[in-house]
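Please check the following for our workbook:

***
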Amino acid sequence: MRECPDCRRTITVDRHEIREKNLEKAKFLSGRLEQAVSENDFVHAKSLIKELRTLNQLLHIEGINIFIRQMKKKIAMQ
């Protein structure tokens, strides 16, 4: 992280830092999605799937796509 010389706010200038933040967010969303599915909160789960899918368009991780498909199958089975 760096500091803006004008306003002194913290700014991200490194693509690696941005990717790491997105990976952390994906992990967080995945955990929330698993919890929502286990609690049968399908409206919230579908919202999380949409958010996770959008995030994965930046990350391009096949494992996330597989996880999303698994969660959608669990939702469809109930």
Q: What stands out?
A: The mean pLDDT is 93. Helices lie at 15-38, 42-59, 62-77.
